[in-house]
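Lecture 7 notes. Example A: sequence first, then its structure tokens.
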Amino acid sequence: FAGHRKTITDLSFSPDGRWLITSSLDRTVRTWDVPEGRLIDCFMVPSPVVTLSFSPTADFLATSHADDLAVYLWSNKTLYTAVSLRPLPSDFVPAQMAMPSTSTAGEDEEDETRFKRAASPQNSADDTSEEEMSVDDSEWCSAEQLSAELVTLSDLPKSRWHNLANLDLIRQRNKPKEPPKKPEAAPFFLPTTAGLVPTFDVPAAEDEEDKTPVSHLVRLAKLQPMSEFQKTLQSCASSGEYQPAMELLTSMGPSAVDTEFHLLEPDTDKKHDCSLLVALLDCLLQQLELKQNYELVQAYLARLLKLHGHILSSNADAAKRLSNLKDVHSSTWAQLQQLFHQSLCLVEYMKSATV
């Protein structure tokens, strides 16, 4: 890694895999943010660290040092206080830290005196930089996408998109059962027919086959004007920028998204007019090309094809968009699969390699 001036003695990943701690013969211990590949913390110790290891809960870092038989425990400050995780500059000069120890009352006073000396005017520049860093920490926010080459997932909870494709099945399972029907009351006196042999006059049963089922479904697109999402999608189609439509779509719940997708179906007399469906395909295609909201686009696309697959396949413009979606999705998934294989190979090597 860039930053160490001498041989690296040991390294250790945090339990969640986000941080990498490295030690070197230059007596520095550095903390790296793995997803961003940046240095976020660095300090110097009196003697070089030989080995280090994270605790299973990431609350302590254990280190052993050269010419020292003790094992030192360093507390993870991020668990109980606000710590700036901004990347350190390339010219950052690490400060030397005192080794952890169990101190008595007299030693505590010495530590306080040493701390007051460290806060002298000659170190005011360092204090000012630390204060500025703590002040700027409240304004720091991570970028929505670290790099255009990386595939970025959405920050929506799994419940907002995971069951979108199976929404019909969930509604059918959650539908309450019909109460048992009350049998028709039989008459007190049964009528009989005239004749030598009296027989009961049973009314003829209605022929159920003659009944034609009447659909109670109402096409909502004919009864109400365009929704806010449809208007936004139409304006985005004219400008070619679909980010406002995607932001509006991600703010909706699964039922609202399903309703909007149903409303995109063209009227019976306008089956050839699929402009809104084509615009939605362009929106999803743009998100795949930008490599943003990857799993969210998969869920929306699955639901859209389940509802309007027969209409999209019969439309030339929609079929062209679907072909482009397939090509972009295949290339993106090939890139992801390659990164997965590289990560698995690195993990297997780290597990089996001997240091």
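Example B, a different protein, same format:
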Amino acid sequence: AVVINAEYGTAQIRIMQLGHNAKLGACFLGIFGCYFYYGIVQEKIMRGTYGPDKERYLYSMFLVWCQCIINAIFAKGILMVTGGSKGDNTPAYLTFICGVTYVGAMLASNSSLKWVSYPTQVLGKTCKPIPVMLLGVFLAGKRYNIVKYISVVLITIGVALFIFKDGKSDGAGFAFGAGEILLLASLTLDGLTGVAQEKMRTYGTKAHYMMMSMNLAALTVVTFGLLITGEIWQAINFCLKYPAIVPEMITFGIASALGQNFIFITVSEFGPLMCSIMTTTRKFFTILGSVVLFGNTLIMRQWIGTLVYSRDWYWTACTAKQSSRPQRSEDP
């Protein structure tokens, strides 16, 4: 009887493992597919031209506004279907801070595409562990092992190799312009978002409730900004003048909502480490896609920087997985 029970238990574990792997694979394909398309459409909107006069779309705040609306509607729909629409004990100020930093990071990131290519934006945004680590140490009192500090240094080297611009005839070396400044601002706000989310987790905030509340808070801020600047009327006029952009904006928002959904599922089911591995892999292939589809050529040094970054993330993921197992029960 003991042998039969043991064999039955082993079979159950194998069945559960198959289900686990299937869900993991579905999350990876979901994140990869949604954000690959998200990135392609984003670059087409922000860097493309419309009409015979080849006008460019310049209203990144309005694009984020549409994105937040679709994200919030999607999250609310999931909560209603799953019966998890009840609120929680998360303080309103945390939700507001998270929403403000979240939307600020998106605005800065989208606006940077006016000056930098999408591959530069993508790899620049992969520096996210740097502000998360620094702000975690100074604002949340976190401590990290030496492996993670080394990882951050190598990531920085990889990104520096990528964004460094060769000098031209005027002797210019490292060009740090408006696009790079916006990327730096976006990274800082990403780090603040991470700190706020960690605090929200201590209140047991559910994944889709966090998604909905973050987007609603962000929507409030963006709506205020649109009305103050008058950008909403300019963007609407642009959409009326060039209606071909409307389907692109809708599909952009849908891809964002689906991608956020898969990210939250991955974080809740498999942990943030696995989510980082997935999103990093996705970003690397997005760079390749952008190079192929939009002709954003990369020189050898930039390819080396991309490979250094990707290799370091893989090494960090493997070592972190081993070192974090005994401490898993301490996570909030």
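Note on Example B: Residues 2-47 form the longest helix (46 residues). The chain has a mean pLDDT of 75.
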